[in-house]
């Protein structure tokens, strides 16, 4: 349900959200059991397959993230939703927190507030994850698929740190969406382009 203060999601955002939901979920799940292709002793081929799949799906995820940023750049309402740092969009954050303490969820759609702030932070987190992943991808292939040099540790550490934030975001996003859907099933229309 869209409140009087929210706008419906553009079709392009719905499609990008679907792709991100699928790709990021795959990325998080695959990293649980994958092993680097340069680790050979006692490692199953499936775990190497997960690593290579993680790299290529990561590249596809990064392309979707870039497309998402292009849509954000061209849509003032979407920018205001994702980065509600001024005006009424900022004021809604406080109202949303007050409402949440009383079990009231904000309406679906683009309206800024707490959901917009959280969505924007999630987009920033997966963007950093994608950027560090691209650097790692290039370093791995430049090294011919063997373990890259010591410099590889820098993007790997950043990628691993941000992965923890993305895991927390992923669980929180799903939990809040399910709670919201129990009260207002229309929130799931983000998955219907």
UniProtKB/TrEMBL annotation:
UniProt KW tRNA-binding keyword: no
GO cellular component: a single term: plasma membrane
InterPro entries in alphabetical order: Cyt_b561_bac/Ni-Hgenase, Di-haem_cyt_TM
Membrane topology type: Multi-pass membrane protein
Localization per Swiss-Prot or TrEMBL: Cell membrane
Gene Ontology MF term list: electron transfer activity
GO process annotations (BP): respiratory electron transport chain
Signal peptide: none
Transmembrane segments: 12-29, 49-72, 120-141, 161-182
Alphabetical list of SUPFAM superfamilies matching this protein: Transmembrane di-heme cytochromes
Domain Cytochrome b561 bacterial/Ni-hydrogenase: 9-189
Name of the protein: Cytochrome b561 bacterial/Ni-hydrogenase domain-containing protein
Species this protein is from: Acidithiobacillus thiooxidans (Thiobacillus thiooxidans)
Lineage: Bacteria, Pseudomonadati, Pseudomonadota, Acidithiobacillia, Acidithiobacillales
């Amino acid at each position: 349900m869209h409140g009087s203060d929210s706008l419906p999601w553009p079709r392009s955002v719905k499609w990008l959200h679907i792709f991100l939901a699928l790709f990021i979920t795959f990325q998080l799940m695959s990293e649980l059991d994958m092993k680097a292709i340069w680790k050979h002793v006692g490692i199953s081929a499936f775990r190497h397959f997960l690593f290579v799949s993680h790299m290529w799906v990561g590249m596809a995820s990064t392309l979707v993230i870039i497309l998402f940023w292009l849509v954000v750049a061209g849509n003032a309402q979407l920018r205001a939703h994702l980065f509600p740092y001024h005006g009424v969009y900022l004021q809604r954050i406080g109202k949303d927190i007050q409402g949440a303490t009383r079990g009231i969820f904000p309406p679906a759609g683009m309206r800024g507030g707490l959901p917009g702030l959280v969505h924007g932070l999630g987009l920033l987190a997966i963007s950093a994850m994608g950027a560090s992943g691209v650097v790692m991808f290039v370093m791995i292939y430049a090294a011919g698929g063997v373990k890259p040099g010591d410099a590889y540790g820098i993007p790997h550490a950043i990628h691993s740190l941000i992965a923890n934030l993305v895991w927390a975001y992923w669980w929180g996003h799903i939990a809040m969406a399910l709670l919201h859907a129990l009260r207002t099933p229309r929130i799931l229309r983000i998955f219907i382009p």
